[in-house]
Design a protein that fits this description.
two-stranded antiparallel sheet; elongated; mainly alpha; 7 helices; 181 residues; single chain
């Protein structure tokens, strides 16, 4: 029996994705949803592989983020959210059109999500958006029930907006008093 045998590929991929999620400080419930591994297996992975990590990786407890207001609360968070949404879209973690089935966690989408978050962190290393928030954003955009991708009413730039808005949304560049004519 070899771990490289084809019949073990699925299990190996789940373990590798779980380790990647652990490195991004994901909660146990998030890792379980995306990999299908048990809570006990995830804790054992953390103890075995993350205890020897070069830096301490904390384990977050409690519920995962679930409030859409986090992404629209300030100009900085709106900007960071738009950049993250762009990268998520470009790398295929969010489908072009909302689809309820696309919001379901899967190994392939989990890999794309990790790639997108890592690329995003290279673009904005001091971002306030955590991996857990990125997971929530990708899921919400894929489902399209709370958040959606849209364009700025002024310049057409990409924005993340709540699904039902009462007025035309404008990015922080177009909304600033210096840009008003």
């Amino acid at each position: 029996m070899r771990i490289s045998d084809h019949r073990y590929n699925g299990e190996r991929l789940r373990m590798e994705l779980a380790l990647r999620f652990l490195r991004h400080e994901a909660r146990t419930q998030t890792i379980r949803a995306w990999t299908g591994l048990s809570d006990d297996r995830i804790r054992k992975l953390y103890r075995t592989y993350m205890s020897q990590a070069s830096r301490f990786l904390p384990r977050h407890r409690g519920k995962s983020p679930h409030q859409v207001g986090y992404f629209t609360r300030s100009q900085r968070s709106q900007h960071e959210t738009a950049v993250l949404a762009s990268v998520l879209s470009l790398l295929g973690a969010v489908p072009a059109a909302p689809d309820t089935a696309a919001g379901v966690p899967a190994l392939a989408r989990g890999e794309q999500l990790c790639q997108a978050f890592e690329a995003y962190r290279m673009l904005l290393p001091s971002s306030q958006i955590t991996f857990e928030h990125a997971v929530f954003l990708a899921t919400a955009l894929a489902r399209g029930d709370q958040l959606r991708l849209g364009g700025c009413g002024g310049c057409g730039g990409l924005m993340v907006t709540e699904r039902f808005t009462l007025r035309t949304q404008r990015c922080h560049h177009c909304a600033s008093p210096l840009q008003a004519h």
